[in-house]
Amino acid sequence: MSDAKTRGPGPLASVKLFFTDRDKLEPAVITLLAAIFAILMGVGLIFVVSKDPVTSTKNFLLGPFLRTYNFYYLLVAMVPITFTGLALCIIYQLKYMSLIVDSSFYTGAIVATAIGVRLALPAGWHPAVAMLAAGLAGGLIGTLPAILKIKWRANELVSSLMFNYVFYFFGSFVILYFLRDRNQTILASMPFQKTFALPKLVENTQLHAGFIIAAVFVALVSIFLFRTKWGYQIRITGANPKFAAYAGIPVASVAIFAHFVSGFIGGIGGAVEMSGLYRAFIWQMNPSYAWDGVIVAMLARKNPKFVPVSAFFLAYMRVGADFMSRRGDVAFEFITLLQGIIILILASDKIANYFKARRLRRNAFAAEAALAAAPAGGVRSDGGGKGTAGAAGTGGKA
Amino acid sequence: MDYLLRTEGLSKVYPNGTLANKQVDFAVAKGEILGLVGENGAGKSTLMKLLYGEESPSSGTIYLDGKPIGFSSSQDAIAAGIGMVHQHFMLVPSLSLAENLVLGQEPKKGKSSFFDLEKAVAITEELGEKYNLKVFARARVVDVSVSMRQKLEILKALYRGAKILILDEPTAVLTPQETDELFVELQALRSHGHTIIFISHKLNEIFKLCDRVSVMRDGRMIGTHQVADVDRQTISNEMVGREVLLSVRKDKAKAGEKVLVAKDLSYIDDFGIAALDHVSLALRKGEILGVVGVDGNGQSELVRILTGSARSLSGSVVVKGRDLTNQKPGALRRAGVAHIAEDRMTVGTALPASIEDNLMADRYFHPEYKGRAGFLKQAAMARAATEIVTTFDIRCKSAKQPVSSLSGGNMQKVVIGREFTADADILVIAQPTRGVDVGAIEFIHKRIIEMRDQGKAVLLVSSDLQEVMSMSDSLVVMNSGKIVAYFEDASATTDKELGLYMLGLKKQNPEEIGKVLHE
Ligand SMILES: Nc1ncnc2c1ncn2[C@@H]1O[C@H](COP(=O)(O)OP(=O)(O)OP(=O)(O)O)[C@@H](O)[C@H]1O
Ligand SMILES: [Mg+2]
Questions:
Q1: Which of B330, B304, B332, B329 is nearest to B318 (CA)?
Q2: CA A305, CA A297: separation in Å to the nearest integer?
Q3: B190, B207, B240 — which closes off a domain?
Q4: DSSP tag of B233
Q5: Whose CA is nearest to atom 16 of ligand 1?
Q6: Is residue B457 within 8 Å of B284, Cβ to Cβ?
């Protein structure tokens, strides 16, 4: 009834709640352990392949913090994978498998480039307009695999991977034919207008305002998924689409809308990356942040609240590995192995629920023992705290 | 007495902390049919899953032939001669019956590793002959009746060499005739030396079939009796802890205006068969219209079309004067049609979602639950859900736990609880008491009558003939997708007469049938 009640606990209280609620804490601990385990494996690997393992290990583990530049770079690297991770949280809540956010992100970057190069707008407005346009383009693209699946039962994973090629080459075509800077030998667009750049958060670093925008989106997506009717519809449809339809939820529109929102976030991510980090479009290949988004969303257990943490972790490993590889004899690619390990651990429910199962078993037996110790007459232990006070009982005699 | 299978102090704690079996001592002798009864959530299925190696006990021991055993999976149990037919069928719908029977132990062509379908068919027919459980070996599972699927499940266990057969509520989905048939077959199995554990909520079945009966309540074994030495009242007292009223008491219906008129509905199923063949009927306020018929004669299709889950090829559905033909379920729900789906597992609930989310799925957008800008009032939703859990006695630890962790009967109560509180004027109810215990049946029946007396229109479809006959004010009988009889006064007919119509041996003339439209 009262507004305060319906809004739930405040931010501080919910942090406290999180650390006292073991159901929520334990998965987090296990995820953390998985991460630590992966890092330890990485260190082991370094010791196997490197001629100077101590320095390489130090560079890998501490590299991101040894140089200010590296640390800011880590924060910057979090931005795109936060956007794709959030986008994929929505898709995974719906229990779809589409990876179309790759197209949304890439096309978002292309749309932003076109606006950054061609339009003259006041500072502030310029990147905002670009983001909105990129978001809309990304959102519309995002709906395609969902529409194909609903209309013709086309597998959304396959169709989205196909679309990713289509939109990648379409984007390259647009740059090449309409936006290319002919004075450059590499493929690059003409430079963006000055007004297009997002402000830097810290002078002389790469850290840009996109970091804040990403943080805002983390909050927005959490609210969207867990507090609004749209999020509810998405979660129920994901849990059982037949049930959702039977209960009266318009499942087709829900799936398409969820894909639109997911693509919208991806598109904005692409635009933020362009206006925050670059002076022109210079990607020679598709950076494919969608795949990183898969890892981020999995580490976050489909929960947008944890996306920043997992994005930080992935970026930390990346920056460390990059720093190490440039100063030693271990190749950057070794982190793909670590990512594989993490995914394997997290994909196992049994590991994920280990602590919980153990604790609950202990609790239940303690309760049982207490019950047995209680004086006789306890045979008729109706309910024992379960919700059994029942109307079924009111019909009979007391 | 020497028992074939016995447990000592068996306990089971589920990962969510539910203590489903508490120190259970249970025993079954060779060659007997042992009944197992208890309320929904008493722990019957859990105990059977422990015996079948599907779940592992948290403590306690299982003895087979006097030797302690520890099954690590149902494979081990099958190897030891234990077979189980689950409360929810476990067949592959798109495969033939013969293929399902041999699945996992397929016969091969000669020395090759190719599957030999002909041999599988021969095995199925031979086995069916031997145990007098006849099935259509070549038909696909989707195409055959529930009772044939049941037989197949039993054959499957026998094919794997089961000497001990566990049947978890096998009759919940059968018609009375099919149940009788099953009993004859089970008694034949007993005379072959098989041992059978039989779970049911229907005490008359226990008394008809079983030698002994064990009663469970709240995870504990309360007692075991020779069926010959005990009466129903004792059993139901042990089960529920109070007397249960099984006869339905109701006043005469005061039928009001028509609120739903369905005309000329047709449906062709995936195999080109007219599952529904130009059916018309009307529902009136304050009246329960029962639909009887052998399962699979168009009842499901009728229900699905009336509730928007399937499209009719012809005709119209008019709800309170509004044409809602072939509209989506959402539109029909908004027009005041609630629907208890017969399949609670795949349609009626979202198993991985919480009880609360399941209870709110048809109403989350109502003003009580939806605030400004699409925000949900979560505290209000939680409160409403807890209230339904209490009213409908859904046995759970909290409304936040997933529906998949409930017992079969409690899942059914989730569906009932939602639809009965939907504030609808028209209730389309299919198999409301399938798998629920006697106490809950009494409660559900009382609520249906109550709602009728409040002026709601009810369409009641059930394969429990006794239930439809005692609950309904008027009746239609369906056969081969058509309505073949209409009785304005349900008490004016007998089950014998209905049987003739149900089997298609008798048919009223169109004029008499047409009276169901009240024109
Ligand atoms: N997988 C599970 N996880 C958690 N709890 C469970 C699980 N399966 C069953 N339970 C709980 O264990 C208890 C016993 O359930 P069980 O299925 O054995 O009941 P039952 O006697 O077969 O009831 P019914 O007649 O309704 O089928 C119930 O409280 C149920 O909620
Ligand atoms: Mg059960």
A1: B332
A2: 10
A3: B240
A4: H
A5: B43
A6: yes
Neighbours of A369 (CB within 10 A): 10
Chain B residue with the nearest C-alpha to that of A398: B242
Q: Are A392 and B442 in contact (CB under 8 A)?
A: yes
C-beta of residue B462 within 8 angstroms of C-beta of residue B431: yes
B95 touches chain A (CB under 8 A): no
Tell me the pLDDT of chain A averaged across its residues. Answer: 85
Measuring from atom 19 of ligand 1, which residue has the nearest CA?
B41
Q: Which atom of ligand 1 is nearest to the CA of B406?
A: 31
Which structural domain, as residue segments, surrounds residue B91? Answer: 5-240
Which residue has a Cα nearest atom 17 of ligand 1? B407
Task: Please state, in angstroms and rounded to a whole number, the distance separating the CA atoms of residues B448 and B456.
Answer: 9
CA atoms within 13 A on the CB side of B354: 15
Residue B291 three-state SS: strand
Of B16, B351, B365, nearest to A360 by CB-CB distance is B16
Q: Quick one: B364 and B488 in the same domain?
A: yes
Structural contact between residues B443 and B461, judged by C-beta atoms closer than 8 angstroms: no
* SS3 call for A371: helix
B412 to chain A, any CB pair closer than 8 A? The answer is no
pLDDT for the residue A396:
34
Regarding whether B131 and B15 lie in a shared domain, the answer is yes
Q: Is A261 exposed, middle or buried (0-12, 13-18, 19+ CB in 10 A)?
A: buried
pLDDT band at A24 (very low <50, low <70, confident <90, very high): low
Reported ipTM: the value is: 0.85
How many structural domains comprise chain B? Answer: 2
Both B344 and B472 in one domain: the answer is yes
β-pairing verdict for B5-13 and B19-28: antiparallel
| Inter-chain residue contact A246 with B17, CB threshold 8 Å | no
**Residue of B10, B46, B214, B217 best suited for mutating to test ligand 1, as the one with most atoms within 8 Å of CB:** B46
Q: Which ligand is nearest to the CA of B215?
A: 1
pTM: 0.85
Q: Whole-angstrom Cα distance, residue B472 to residue B464?
A: 12
Looking at residue A372, what is its pLDDT? Answer: 62
Most confident range, picked from A79-93, A275-289, B175-189: A79-93
Which residue's entry shows tokens 């020395």? Answer: B111
End-to-end Cα, chain B, rounded Å: 68
| Cβ within 8 Å of residue A133, ≥6 positions away | A111, A112, A115, A271
Sign for the CA dihedral angle at A366, A369, A375, A378 comes to positive
Q: Does residue B276 sit in helix, strand or coil?
A: strand
Going from the Cα of A39 to the center of ligand 2, the distance in angstroms, rounded, reads: 46
Residues in contact with ligand 1 (CB, 6 Å cut-off): B 14, 16, 18, 20, 38, 40-46, 87, 395, 405-410
Q: Would you say the C-alpha torsion A272, A276, A282, A285 has a positive or negative sign?
A: negative
What is the spatial distance between Cα B128 and Cα B135, in angstroms, rounded to a whole number? 7
CATH of the domain at B299: 3.40.50.300
Query: Which ligand 1 atom is nearest residue B87's CA?
Result: 27
Angle at the Cα of A282 from the Cα atoms of A295 and A172, rounded to 5 degrees: 85
Q: CB–CB of A387 and B390 under 8 A?
A: yes
**Radius of gyration, alpha carbons of chain A:** 25
Nearest-CA distance from B395 to chain A in Å? 6
